[in-house]
Amino acid sequence: MIKKHNSVRTILYRTHLLNSFYTTIFIFFLFQILFYFNPSVDRIVVSLVISIAVFVLSLLIGLYFSFLKGQQLIDRLNGIYVAITKLSRGNYDYRIQDNGSDEVGTICHELNELTKKVEEQVRSLQKLVNDKAELVEKAHTAATIEERQRLARDLHDAVSQQLFALNMMSSAAMKLFNTHPERAKQQLEQVVDMANKAQGEMRALLLHLRPVQLSGENLYTGIKGLVEELKLKSGIEIESDIQSIPELPKGIEDHLFRMIQEGLANALRHSQASRLTIRLDHTGQHIRVHLRDNGVGFVSNEPKKTSYGLKTMQERCNEIGGTLSITSAQGKGTALDIRVPIGKGDVMDE
User: pTM for the complete prediction?
Assistant: First the structure.
């Protein structure tokens, strides 16, 4: 609890009291000086002069002390704002340097304690993910079978039907080529569009044929291999900047790998992009991943049937205490930014 004599209200009272005290002392000495040198001065004039002097001095001194105290309070509140901003962005090492014993000081202390608790919870989440990764390894065979079944369904539901439709439309276009060339041209344009969509589906399916986990590789090696394979098989221009990163627990690496894999698959399947950019680096406190395409984009606040992959990425990011930022606009492509804190001590333990 805050002691009453240290409250903000009491401090303001003390400030005004101090202001009045100094003003009174000054007026007292001024009064003595005036009557010492001019004992015959009219007391009404003297009282008027003293009243005006008291008003002016009280106003000036009050403004001065109010400005000082107000600026101090603004600086302390700005410190709280900076701490909240850093906490929301995943910087759990920042602490407010405020030792005040009033209400603002208590808020700073409690906010520091909250930051410490959030940091501990993130470490617990990451440790839980690491434990979960061991269980995932044991279920790897079952997951592989399930993935093959899913790919078989996707091939049947998407690519196979598109290929069948391509065959039918191209055959119809050939029959109309001599008699109705305009209609044949329209159908051929539809064939081209459908072929592009089928190509995107195939690229995404090929990407999902990679192992579900890193299979003994570290994240740096796994992402480098994934990018090189995409450059050979996708036919899309890929710009990559994959930097070496510190050794991470297996659970965190697996989640990051799957998020990157899912992000690239979404771009191949839905974006109709001709260029992809991928960056992987670290700041000492965070692992950062940046994915960007120059595709069709979408309106971020509109629900989409294709957002299942993004929801999965968000869930994986939450499980390891990270943040996922999605920026997109129609006709201007999509950018994904992932930031995962890499703490000290238990966070880096296997």
Answer: 0.52
